[in-house]
Amino acid sequence: DPEDTPNTDESYSILDILNRDCLDHILNYIPILDIIRTERVSKRWQNMMQEHLEGRRTFKTSWWEMAPPLTTAVLRRVLQKLGGSLTRLHIDHHWSALNDRTAHILTDSSLVQIVKNDSSIESLVVSNNTHVTGLFLTGSSPPKLNSLSFYNCYSLQGTVLCAAIDTLPLITTLRLDMCPISMWKIIPLILQKLLKLEELSLSEYTSVDCLYTQNSDFGDAIANLPELKVLNLSKNIYVTNAVLKKLKRLDVSYLAALTDRGLTAASRLPLLRSLTARGNPALTARPFVACLSACPLLQEVDACGCDSVTEEVVCAALLALDSRPRLVALHLAGTAAAVSNKVQCCVTGDLSNPNLRPDFMDQIFDDSSEDSFDDMYDFDHDAFNDFFAAEDELFLDEEDFEDYEGIAYGLHGPDIILL
């Protein structure tokens, strides 16, 4: 009966097989340009792709790796496709990955058109940009923005950013990593306006062109942040014994000016849960012992690469467990405790980077040319000559030697370089 026979001519697509959740999961792995082009397949595909794009919450410009180049006009149309559900925007194209036209267009005037005052963006990241100064925040003032990050933005101006902060009352996360050294003088003024700040990152300030050593203003600004929970000051040469307050995680790795006295101040942090101080040669076990004894919630101590830290840290951890039982993770690889016979815990897996240590020195080219070959002559000459003396041990047979006139059969050990 023709009515009972299924219609084999009816076309089926992936939209008929997978549900919405499966399709969204698959489309997350497809470049956004291909998704936009897929809208041309049919009306049904167009509706499906538009619904998917409107549901995306994160977009990174580094995901755009094909033609046409990502100019401001293209980026603006892409954001229009994403709709009002976009909450996290990352302008993280590296300047070398862009053409000349794009590199000159992605400036403050361009970002004003992208980050508008009626957008729903909650997190904004601008990285690897040589043109943005921060002026676009004053013109756009996104009302829901609560996380602001700048990384490797050489043109960022502290005074402009300080004025823009007045229009961003909801900021709780601020990251100013690897920014111009002139920013460091304005940071205390910025922090005075962010009383709701919960996370602050000021890492990778390593330039000594204009060393700013007055940290009293910065310490006072940190102390006046009642909601601050996370502070990242790793690889920041401007940080000395600053005043710290209510923190849950503290990272003070690779700081040349950090001393035992400065880190001991962290023992007055009752909410401290994680303490990381990698590659600090001036630190001993004393500040870590003080933190383990005085911080009841401390669960992780990372002292990898601190040469002078001894097994006293382990003893302090055992005493802390007796007073308040909890899980405590100790990372002591690369310390004096790692070579001590008194430590019976795992001290392998050094998490520190020796190249980032303040006392790192490249020893490759230190030796002079006269001394660099001395080790080649420090061997037993008799044993060396005996090794090459027997004719049966030579690699060439006697018949092969007859083909070479003038070859020297006597091999002198000191004249041979073994690689």
Number of helices: 16
Outline, from the CA principal axes? Answer: globular
Q: What is the CATH third-level topology name of the domain at 250-361?
A: Leucine-rich repeat, LRR (right-handed beta-alpha superhelix)
Order of helices and strands: HHHHEHEHHEHEHEHEHEEHEHEHEHH
Mean pLDDT over the residues: 75
Catalogue the unreliable spans.
Answer: 95-104, 365-373, 387-396, 403-419
Evaluate the radius of gyration. 31 Å
Helix/sheet category: alpha/beta
- What profile does the largest beta sheet have? 11 strands, parallel
Give the number of DSSP strands.
11
Domain F-box: 12-62
Pfam families: F-box
InterPro entries: F-box-like_dom_sf, F-box_dom, LRR_dom_sf
Organism: Operophtera brumata (Winter moth)
How would you portray this structure in words?
This protein has 419 residues and is α/β, with parallel strands linked by helices. Among the domains are: 43 residues, no CATH class; 112 residues, Ribonuclease Inhibitor (Leucine-rich repeat, LRR (right-handed beta-alpha superhelix), Alpha-Beta Horseshoe); 42 residues, no CATH class. The chain contains 16 helices and 11 strands. The protein has an 11-stranded parallel beta sheet, with no helix packed on it. It starts with 13 loop residues before the first helix and ends in a 17-residue tail after the last helix.
